[in-house]
Specification:
The structure is a single chain. The protein is an all-alpha fold. The chain contains 13 helices and two strands; from the N terminus they run ααααααααββααααα. It has a two-stranded antiparallel ribbon with strand order 1-2. The protein is globular, with a radius of gyration of 24 Å. The termini are far apart.
């Protein structure tokens, strides 16, 4: 990069409100600017629109999902409903703690400089990472519940119940709180408003310590590396079981059964499998890039890779990870007929009330 272009980039980067001008200047440049820098500043500009839009969409979407599922009219088992409500609730908390109180102030830091005087960042980090862990591990526990329901008929009666779901959800929440309490001791209460993994100021000399590196490594292994592997494993085992069982039942229900191709048992399993794959597949797709970035960064830290992971990849990881907080409702609507019907009723209800008031 020549000296004039470098000077212009740094000059513009000091003015956070000119991020659009900076992106336009870089993308229009004919010089040999790296692709990573082009993408990075394009994402910086896009985030000014992306995160406010995500917040506006995700808050009502998750709220409506909680209301619909809590009514218990979607034809789902009570245990399944508990898992889905818990997942929607934690997604809503993540949107509030991460998108609204973290990403938007970072993107518009010129307008949120006052938060530096609000000394609660360590508590904010604890609540944010706890909610994120709960959201991820609730997906794992739901995946395991569906695995037991489909593949382990003897265990299904005792495990796939509402009471078990409540115990599992409570246990995961308590363990997530214990896991993330260390953030209150490792981060200060001052906000940094920086484009980095940590939005709080770390305590002095902490970043250079081996203890910090070990804690960070354990943190990301527990969430999301292990959950990612478990979800893939349970999905693979469930799909394999369904395929094997489907072939066996087709042989047993040969034309002599006289019932044609319809099999109520397999139809029920297919519906459970579709719901499972939709939710866990969404998690896998939107967290895969984060896993890639983490492994790359860890290998670079250990000396196996000499190239730093691009900053544009890190920003894209955050964007895709947070997108997962508002996509489940759309997936429910696509795959669950009764959920669609309930969603239509919720959307229509305000207009019905207004119409009744007018006619009164």
């Amino acid at each position: 990069m020549d000296l004039n272009l470098r000077t212009a980039v740094w000059s513009l980067s000091g003015k956070r409100k000119n991020v659009f001008w900076m992106a336009q200047y870089i993308l229009a440049s004919d010089d040999w600017l790296t692709l990573n820098l082009r993408i990075y500043y394009a994402l910086r500009a896009f985030k000014l629109i992306y995160y406010p839009t995500l917040a506006v969409v995700a808050v009502p979407v998750n709220t409506v999902t909680i209301v619909i599922l809590s009514r218990g009219k979607c034809g789902l088992a009570k245990g399944v409903t508990r898992y889905l409500v818990a997942m929607a609730a934690t997604d809503l908390i993540v949107v509030f703690m991460d998108v609204i109180l973290r990403q938007i102030p970072i993107a518009y830091r010129d307008y949120f400089g006052f938060v530096r005087s609000i000394r609660v960042c360590d508590v904010h980090a604890f609540l944010l990472y706890t909610a994120t862990d709960c959201s991820v591990w609730f997906t794992v526990t739901f995946t395991f519940d569906r695995f037991v329901s489909i593949c382990c008929q003897k265990l299904k009666t005792n495990y796939c119940t509402e009471r078990t779901a409540l115990v599992v959800l409570g246990t995961v929440t308590a363990l997530s709180c214990l896991k993330n309490i260390f953030w209150c001791f490792m981060l200060t209460s001052e906000y940094s408003l920086a484009y980095a993994r940590w939005f709080c100021m770390p305590r002095a000399r902490l970043l250079e310590s081996q203890f910090w590196g070990s804690i960070e490594l354990l943190h990301y292994i527990l969430t999301p590396v292990i959950p990612f592997i478990l979800v893939l494993l349970f999905n693979a085992l469930t799909i394999r079981h369904v395929l094997v069982a489907s072939r066996a039942r087709r042989r047993l229900r040969a034309p002599s059964s006289g019932e044609g191709a319809h099999d109520p048992e397999m139809a029920s399993r297919r519906k459970s499998l579709i719901l499972l794959l939709v939710i866990s597949g969404n998690f896998i797709l939107l967290w895969a890039l984060f896993i890639l970035y983490y492994i790359w960064n860890r290998m670079r830290f250990l000396g196996y890779v000499s190239v730093f992971p691009p900053a544009s990849l890190r920003e894209l990881c955050f964007m895709m990870q947070l997108l997962s907080c508002c996509t489940n409702t759309a997936l429910y609507a696509v795959t669950q007929t009764r959920f669609r019907d309930q969603l239509k009723d919720v959307v229509k209800s305000p207009f019905i009330l207004i119409s009744e008031r007018i006619h009164c």
